[in-house]
Amino acid sequence: MMNTMVHVEVPAADRGPAADRAIKVVARGVNVHYGEKHALHDVDLDIPERAVTALIGPSGCGKSTFLRCLNRMNDTIPVARVTGRIEIDGHDIHDPELDVVQLRARVGMVFQKPNPFPKSVYENVAYGPRIHGLARTKGELDEIVVSSLRRAGLYEEVKDRLADSGTGLSGGQQQRLCIARAIAVSPEVILMDEPCSALDPIATAKIEELMDELRENFTIIIVTHSMQQAARVSQRTAFFHLGSLVEEGPTETIFTTPKDRRTLDYITGRFG
Amino acid sequence: MTEHIIKAFDADLQELARMVAEMGGIAEKQIADSVAALARRDSKLAQGVMTADAGLDRLQREIEERAILTIARRQPMAVDLREIVGALRVSNDLERVGDLAKNIAKRVVALGSDLYPHNKVIRGVEHMADLVLAQLKRVLDAYARRDVAKALAVWRGDEAIDAVNNSLFRELLTYMMEDPRNITFCTHLLFCAKNIERMGDHATNIAETVHYIVEGHPLVDERPKGDTTASATVAFPGQ
Asked: Domain map of chain A by residue range?
């Protein structure tokens, strides 16, 4: 795979820990319409590799819509129309030559509600590598399943019940199973759409700890309603409002000295 | 600033600011009373200053408790967090100002009602205290209004106090050399002057806090400093 790295100039004052990283995902002039509704307006955003980027904003601000553009999930909605350019490693994801199934293997997704397949823990993780032909032997497949469960911080808890149903796990375990399933196909980007909103604080802390480990190898983009979560887990934060990207920058800047008044009002709980 | 969606959060922040303002009022009175006690050799007034210091200490503890509770409860971000950290810092400075006033009061009691040999230096100390009181009033006003320009004016204005302190220092050394019987009185007065000079430094600390609350980053410039007493010497006449 080609790795075209795009470097952008960041003003010295905006330089956070993730600022020197190569840019993995580039969005330019992205607009989304759902039928008559103009859901996303001209979004330009650079997302650095191997860092967590948080998308925040009130309900209906377009953050999930934008997230779903990145692996072309909006293609599955008949009335949705996406325009503009989105590149991953310099390659246009709307290229007609590109296989959207391959794209979704490179750009994995974890949803708000844990949605394991009604199959065994093992099969949940093995499914992706098998259909993508990532393992030639049973031994190789076993190895992928175990290492994915390990990286998702779940292996120790489920190693004795790999044959049990995935839906029998606790909510937090199910979500980590979904993360294991996503990373089993070796994606480069992982999209998370409110991955902790259905979890208790302990399960949430485990997922956050996991994100901190996973960002060494993956580019993670998370949509979250919890500002504290965005502040805890991300290196960069983008604030959306009424379908527009209002402000984007290092997380520490967005949560201490945002430039836009709307961002300040939102993060301090002053939004009417 | 518009109000928070959660009204009780606004109430928490307002109450913190009110408590800091109350501390400010008490601290101003403590400075004025301690210096008046010094000038008038009023041991009774000095005792009052020593007793009243407990009120400042109590308010500071209450501010600390309320600040911690507000952080735990509201998880404040950005300017809200800085407001709370600012209240903690300002209340610390005001508590220290109170301690310094109390220390002056103790010295007034120690000196008793003996006639002071040099009323002129007392007037110098009073003048310095007036300057510091004006600085403290201005900076507390800047804090109440979140007025960075006014805070910066206070921050830069500390030099004048240092200049008075330097000349007082030399004057007192000279009196001590003239007559060893002046030493007890002059040494106490030297510490009083130093205390007042330190109060001025606390006023500039508060100015820095106002800047931090509003701007979100600390003042990085080096403050103009004029205290040269650390290297001051006075030679014996004829040497």
From this structure: 2-9+21-267
Alpha carbons A60 and A233: distance in angstroms, whole number: 22
Q: Which residues of A touch B (CB under 8 A)?
A: 227-228, 231, 255-258, 264-265, 267-272
B9, closest residue in chain A (CA to CA)? A269
Q: Do B77 and A270 touch (CB under 8 A)?
A: no
Is the CB of B79 inside 8 Å of chain A's CB atoms?
Answer: yes
Question: Residues A123-138: pLDDT tens digits?
Answer: 999 999 999 999 999 9
Strands A107-110 and A23-34: unpaired
Do A254 and A44 form a contact (C-beta atoms < 8 A)? Answer: no
Q: Does position B39 have pLDDT exceeding 60, yes or no?
A: yes
**In terms of CATH, what superfamily is A2-9+21-267?**
P-loop containing nucleotide triphosphate hydrolases (3.40.50.300)
CA B169 to chain centre: 19
Supply the ipTM of this predicted assembly: 0.78
Q: DSSP of A70-89, one letter per residue?
A: TTTGGGGSTTEEEEEEEEET
Q: What is each CA distance from B114 to A55, A268, B50, B92, B103, in whole angstroms?
A: 73, 59, 20, 35, 19
Beta bridge partners of A81: A33
B19 vs A44, B12, B22, CA distance in Å?
Answer: 46, 11, 5
Q: Which amino acid is at A51?
A: A
Does residue B234 lie in a domain region? Answer: no
Domain-embedded: residue B236:
no
